[in-house]
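pasting for the record
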Amino acid sequence: EVVARDEREGGLRAILNYGHTIGHAIETATRYRRYLHGEAVGLGMVAAGRVAAELGLWSKQEAERQETLLGRARLPVCWDHDINTAQLLELTELDKKVEAGKVRFILPETIGRVRVSADVPPAVLHRVLDTLRLATP
């Protein structure tokens, strides 16, 4: 129904892309061998939630709740230490949602509602992505 109502991925359909910007970058960085698609998207959701909390779009408690629920579903909530943050950021620039040279991130405002944002400060992205890397074994 969402796809039928928004065939061009304008506003409503953006909710279906939640977690995919970083998720696809993770899949590409790991050559599609380390994480299943749903796991990579879940990781992207964690990243988007933390970015949104950092920007004040939603609360840290909501971001933590999302991570807890993903963890309960046995999905990873951080990625392997060898996944390079700078590489992930470069790979996001290949995403189909890039518009006018800007990466558009799908960020939550509340549970069930997102916004499309092309103005996420690179320093915020880098800091958040760094926090999601597992410690070196």
